[in-house]
Design brief:
single chain; about 400 residues; alpha/beta; Aspartate Aminotransferase, domain 2; four-stranded mixed sheet; globular; binds pyridoxal-5'-phosphate
Length: about 400
């Protein structure tokens, strides 16, 4: 079937939760995608920061193929070697001592919220201690608890009554955060860099100040690294840029090279509150996805992809800035590593559409911030080609 035929069938059978573009990708390799009509695209969205290793990385493909032929799924009633090995790998490379596995970012955040509430109530012997402060413009997921945690009215509309206990404060504003802390507060939950919110990078002083506030008020510091983690910023975890350590961290998107997975990591003392029967997931951390994740994490670490993300990030950032100086509608280029936003004074939707026509996959968030999250394996030539296409579009708009 060609793209048009697929789109017609989609209209008939698929719920309209996404404003999908009329593109039907059927094959991918590295930074490139092909649609059902054979058209080639340069992919600078990478499945929204999922395909950090590019599409169909050979090591991930091999791990999936081997594991699929051996054991795809078994229950968490039993011990799962691949899950154990992945947990060890993540703990050895982070502050964390223990991991819980699930299937998505929202579920990882759900687990973090449940753990924070249970830990705090037990530790302080107070049922009143359940509040979580999050940031305006944050994004933590689409389940009911994570929608309540998310600081964007547009994702909450129509779904009230929302889960009680979430307060939103402006991001990167320490005094607003401090003022929101009350005796009911048990945790502060933030993205180290806001993704959906428009690639907002907070100051080092802010992040360190949040850690101090958490210590002073005995609150848990939860970091949602679902989008920024797994090497995207040039460090395995983005919080390393700020010299802070959370108590709980969530990961998902790029963790398994494209296979669906989520995880919530914590210090031992905090993790101890998750006792048998308090939380769980049928598929969470099953042999197939955890085998893929081991391959993905090892590839990031062993193939020098952290350095590469830093280097290519600097290059892409520089090229975007150069381009930006030539067009008055470009406000700012910001981000760390390969997590880059270009904010505009005009809506970005038209640019994205023109990109599609010219074979470039891009994304716009918050209406006017172009988001660049290519695979960490992206080459200089691919960046140059992307800039060429973008320049062509900018010229057209300027005319
Ligand atoms: C994508 C994202 C989520 C939600 O992840 P899902 O896998 O879609 O549930 C949560 N937090 C952040 C920061 C994200 O970018």
């Amino acid at each position: 079937m060609n793209s048009e035929q697929w789109i017609e069938k989609s209209d008939k059978y698929i719920m309209k939760t996404y404003g999908r573009y009329p593109i039907v990708p059927v094959k991918g390799e590295g930074c490139r995608l092909w649609d059902a009509d054979g058209k080639e695209y340069l992919d600078f969205l990478a499945g929204v920061a999922v395909n950090n290793l590019g599409h169909c990385h050979p090591r991930v493909v091999k791990a999936l193929q081997d594991q699929a032929a051996t054991l795809i799924h078994c229950s968490n009633y039993y011990q799962i070697p691949q899950q154990i090995e992945l947990a060890e790998l993540l703990c050895n490379h982070s502050f964390a001592d223990k991991a819980f596995f699930c299937n998505s970012g929202a579920e990882a955040n759900e687990a973090a919220i449940k753990l924070a509430r249970k830990y705090s109530r037990e530790k302080f012997d107070s049922l009143e201690r359940y509040g979580i402060i999050t940031a305006a413009e944050s994004f933590h997921g689409r389940t009911l608890a994570t929608v309540a945690a998310t600081g964007q009215e547009k994702v909450q509309r129509f779904f009230d009554p929302l889960l009680h206990g979430f307060t939103h404060v402006p991001f990167d504003d320490l005094s607003a955060l401090e003022a929101a802390i009350n005796p009911e507060t048990c945790a502060i939950m933030l993205e180290p860099i806001q993704g959906e919110g428009g690639i907002n990078v907070p100051s080092v002083a802010y992040m360190q100040g949040v850690r101090e506030l958490c210590d002073r008020h005995k609150l848990l510091f939860i970091l949602d690294e679902v989008q920024v983690g797994m090497g995207r910023t040039g460090k395995l975890f983005a919080h390393e840029h700020f010299g802070v350590t959370p108590d709980i961290m969530t990961l998902a998107k790029a963790l398994a090279g494209g296979a669906p997975i989520g995880t919530m990591l914590a210090r031992d003392e905090v993790a101890a509150s998750f006792t048998p029967g308090t939380h769980g997931s049928t598929f969470g951390g099953n042999p197939l996805v955890t085998a893929a994740a081991i391959a993905a994490v090892k590839t990031i670490l062993e193939d020098g992809l952290l350095n590469r993300a830093e280097e290519m990030g600097e290059y892409l950032h520089g090229e975007l800035e150069k381009l930006g100086t030539r067009y008055s509608f470009v406000k700012e280029v910001r981000g760390i590593g390969l997590m880059i936003g270009m904010s505009l004074t005009i809506p970005g939707a038209e640019i994205v559409k023109k990109g599609h026509m010219l074979g470039l996959l891009l994304n716009v968030t918050q209406d006017s911030v172009l988001r660049f999250v290519p695979p960490l394996t992206v080459t200089k030539q691919e960046v140059n080609r992307m800039i060429e296409i973008l320049e062509k579009i900018f010229k057209e708009i300027d005319a």
